[in-house]
Every structure is written in structure tokens, then in C-alpha cells.
Specification:
Helices cover 37% and strands 22% of the residues. The protein is of the alpha/beta class. An 8-stranded parallel beta sheet has the order 6-7-8-9-10-11-12-13. A 4-stranded mixed beta sheet has the order 3-2-1-4. Strands 5-14-15-16 form a 4-stranded antiparallel beta sheet, with no helix packed on it. A hairpin with a 5-residue loop joins strand 2 and strand 3. GO terms for molecular function: guanine deaminase activity; zinc ion binding.
């Protein structure tokens, strides 16, 4: 079958590295229609030196730009049932009162599960999320519904069937470590079979081993999951050093830190994404880096459930792979834009606390003092390229060979000159057209889904 190319011409923005944002004015990007792979990216007003030609072209309006899609590295799909409720309790009590109950409900009501997962997929795409790492429930069939709905929606989804042979809820637990391992292996096989008849570029869903966290998993189960991950080359996700009560419980029951438990059972790998990590020390973050493990930073849920903020700057300084997560429903917003804003706000609070501490100790906090805050451009990297790297994807950038995972953001109407959605622009501050970095920053601060007009995953338009 012949390959046809479709081109897009206009303004493109990406963050190739931390803190470095590139803005490409009047560029042309061409995609292989059948496979959704970028085959050309260069200035549009220069003669092409490439053999690539395109049969059709989309012009991006002057008040708009194309940005890579977001990655959500931590989301509990069944907890979308009660998003925005029950955030008044400590973590372990919250799990008993809300989370486990909701997960059990979906395992017993597949009609409800299908409704919730279909809605969740649609909402994620509408908010520009092109790839998501999902916690599911303990039942295989319910997780197959989750995988099917994500595949049907066209979103990249890494689906984790929960593994837990210990639970504070008597009716919501797997009967034994061996039963849990058998179920995990069965789900991996079923999830892979879901897309095996499709071409590789059409496969959106992948299974992930998911021990909930150390308090809900016996050593036998954790050891078996480590062996299964190694044998089948599977990604792993869990929670690590999330909250004070969880950390103390692990110390009491296991006599060690939970990072040591994961390491002991070969669950800290280059295929692992650990959520939160708020109680990890700088040396622990170096251990995370040495294992090649990634961290899902969930700033909003950390505010609610952790007595410590995540040491984001220290992790980045150690070249740890870090992306952002919404942590539905421990966080109440499914929009990664809010996670970006919250990551910056929390980091600035850390910097402020550090500065005041140094002043109180009689230290001047001179220019050599490391700034713990991140800026909006760094957060944009975490939401796009950083998340892609954590998931082992080639997306998050506009380069030849990368999949076309992108979103079109509209800042102002080209005819009226008016800002779109919550955005207002005035002639005395920044010129309305062409777009510039100040306007993109304003969108980062106050923009919302009204500014998002199209979303593509692997070249396939999933929102228009």
C-alpha cells in the first residue's frame, strides 16, 4: 500500500530538555498517514531538501500553536467515580473509607465500570493527555474493560491490574500471593491479546504490573512480581514513600524502608515508575537514578496526603526521570495543566522555606545557593517530554522518527483579535500576533480546555 503524507504548517512549541523551550515560527511538519510518524520538520519558507512530499496540508491559524500531548504518570481509574470528594482524611483512613470501596464497587458492576472508563478516556483527551499510566482494580475482567475503553478512545494507556494479597477491607483482597501472581500473569496475556492482531502503530494499550504498595503486598507476592517483570519485560508501577503513616507502617511491619523492600524484590528497574517519593532522602534519590527508575510527581495529592513535599529539584539535579501525575482521586483535577501549576507553586514554597531557614541561621543565601524552585518552562518539560521518557516513549518532541502526539492550542481569534477562553490580551502589554513566549506563559497560567481545539495520538485525530 502506498504511503501518503499529511503536512501541518504553522507554529510549533516543544521542550527538548529541562528548562529549554523551543518556539518554531512558520514550520512545516509532515506525518505518514498510515503510521502517524513524523517524516519531515523544517522551516516552511525554505525549499525542501527532503524527498518527502505531502498530498494534503493543514494550516494552523496564526493565533494558535502545536504542542506535544501531556503524559499523566499516575491515575487511579476506578477512583474517577468519586473525583473531588473525600479529601479530608489521612491516607490510610482515606483508602479504607473511599478508595477500596469504590474499586470493589466497579469490580462488581461492569456496566458502571464501562461508563466511568469511557468518560475518563474522553475527559483525558479533552485535557490534552495523550498517554496515561493507570491503576485499575484487582479483578481481571474489570481491567480488561479499562483496557478496551482506552484502546477504543485512541489514548496511549498503560493499564495496571492491582496486585494485593493484604487488605484492611476484608471483602476486597486477593486470596493468596500465588492467586495474585496467577491473576497478574493472566491479565498480561489477555491485555496483550487485545491488540495483537493490530499493526504495531495501532496498539495503544500495554499491561503494567501493579503492586499497590508495600503494606498491601506480602514478600512472596512482591518477589513473584519482580520475577514476572524480568521474565516478561513488563513495566512496574507502585507507590513509594508517600505519606508519614504509610512509611511508619512499613517500618513497623517490615523493619526497613519501603525503598529497601522494592529493591530487595527487584522492583526498582528501568521499567519502574514510582509515585510520590516524598519521604525519600537525597541519597535515596541517587539510588532511584542508579536503578533507572522514574518518579511520578503528584503535587496536589501530596498536599493532601503527605506531610512532606517531594524533593523535585534534588531529583532533577540527580538526573532522575520525573514526570507529572494527577493521582485521581487523591488529587481532584484530571487536567495536567493544574499539575504543572501546582508543581511550580509547591517548589516555590520549598524555596521560600529554605530561604527563611538560612536567614534565621544567619546565612545570607548568596548566589551560589541552589534554587529549589522550578519555573513554568521546566514544568512544561515534565508534563510532556519528561513524562514520555519515564514511559519509555519517543514522543514529547517534534523530530523526524517520533510519533505525532500533539495538541493544537488556540490563544486568540485571528478575526476579532480577542483572547480565547480565560485569556485577555491588550495592545499595551504584548502584541496579539504573531504569538510570542509571553502569550504562551499566560496560557500556561490561566488557560483551560477551551483553548484546546485538536488532539492527535500517533497521527490519529482523537479530539476535534
Amino acid at each position: 500500500m502506498a504511503s501518503y503524507h499529511h503536512a501541518y504548517r504553522g507554529m510549533f512549541v516543544h521542550t527538548l530538555s529541562l528548562g529549554s523551550m523551543q518556539v518554531f515560527h512558520d514550520y512545516r511538519l509532515a506525518v505518514v498517514d498510515q503510521h502517524g510518524i513524523i517524516v519531515y520538520f523544517d522551516q516552511a519558507n525554505l525549499p525542501s531538501l527532503s524527498a518527502v512530499s505531502w498530498t494534503t496540508e493543514t494550516l494552523i491559524p496564526e493565533g494558535s500553536f502545536i504542542l506535544p500531548t501531556f503524559c499523566d504518570l499516575h491515575l487511579h481509574a476506578p477512583q474517577y467515580l468519586y473525583q473531588g470528594n473525600g479529601l479530608d482524611l489521612p491516607l490510610m483512613q482515606w483508602l479504607d473509607t473511599y478508595a477500596l470501596k469504590a474499586e470493589e464497587q466497579l469490580d462488581s458492576d461492569h456496566g458502571l465500570a464501562k461508563e466511568i472508563y469511557k468518560t475518563l478516556a474522553r475527559r483525558l483527551l479533552r485535557n490534552g493527555t495523550g498517554a496515561v499510566l493507570l491503576f485499575g482494580t484487582i479483578k481481571e475482567d474489570t481491567n480488561m474493560i479499562l483496557a478496551e475503553e482506552m484502546q477504543n478512545a485512541g489514548i496511549r494507556a498503560f493499564v495496571g491490574k492491582l496486585s494485593m494479597d493484604i487488605s484492611s477491607r476484608r471483602t476486597y483482597v486477593e486470596p493468596s500471593a500465588q492467586a495474585s501472581l496467577d491473576s497478574a500473569e493472566s491479565f498480561v496475556s489477555r491485555c496483550r491479546a487485545l491488540t495483537q492482531e493490530l499493526a504495531p502503530h495501532e496498539r495503544r494499550v500495554e499491561p503494567v504490573l501493579t503492586p499497590r504498595f508495600v503494606p498491601t503486598c506480602s514478600d512472596e507476592l512482591l518477589h513473584g512480581l519482580g520475577e514476572l517483570s524480568e521474565k516478561e519485560n513488563l513495566k512496574i508501577q507502585s507507590h513509594l514513600a508517600e505519606a508519614h503513616d504509610e512509611v511508619e507502617l512499613v517500618r513497623k511491619e517490615r523493619g526497613m524502608e519501603d525503598i529497601d523492600v522494592f529493591e530487595k524484590h527487584k522492583l526498582l528497574t528501568s521499567r519502574t515508575i514510582q509515585a510520590h517519593c516524598t519521604f525519600l532522602s537525597p541519597p535515596d534519590l541517587s539510588r532511584i537514578h542508579d536503578h533507572g527508575t522514574a518518579i511520578a510527581h503528584c503535587p496536589l495529592s501530596n498536599v493532601y496526603f503527605s506531610a512532606e513535599p517531594f524533593r523535585l529539584r534534588e531529583a532533577l539535579d540527580r538526573n532522575v526521570k520525573v514526570g507529572l501525575g494527577t493521582d485521581i482521586a487523591g488529587g481532584y483535577s484530571v487536567d495536567i495543566m493544574n499539575a504543572m501549576r501546582q508543581a511550580v507553586a509547591v517548589s516555590r514554597m520549598r524555596q521560600g522555606k529554605n530561604l527563611m531557614s538560612r536567614i534565621e541561621q544567619g546565612q545570607d543565601g548568596g548566589e551560589d545557593e541552589r534554587n529549589l524552585a522550578i519555573d513554568w518552562k521546566e514544568s512544561l518539560y515534565l508534563a510532556t517530554r519528561g513524562g514520555s521518557i519515564a514511559l519509555g516513549l519517543d514522543s514529547g518532541v517534534f523530530e523526524v522518527g517520533a510519533p505525532f502526539d500533539a495538541q493544537m492550542i488556540v490563544l486568540c481569534d485571528t478575526e476579532s483579535g480577542e483572547g480565547v477562553g480565560a485569556l485577555d490580551f491588550f495592545s499595551g502589554s504584548v502584541p496579539k500576533l504573531p504569538l510570542n513566549v509571553d502569550m504562551i506563559e499566560k496560557w500556561w497560567c490561566v488557560g483551560d480546555d477551551r483553548n484546546r481545539r485538536s488532539v492527535w495520538v500517533q497521527g490519529n485525530q482523537v479530539v476535534s
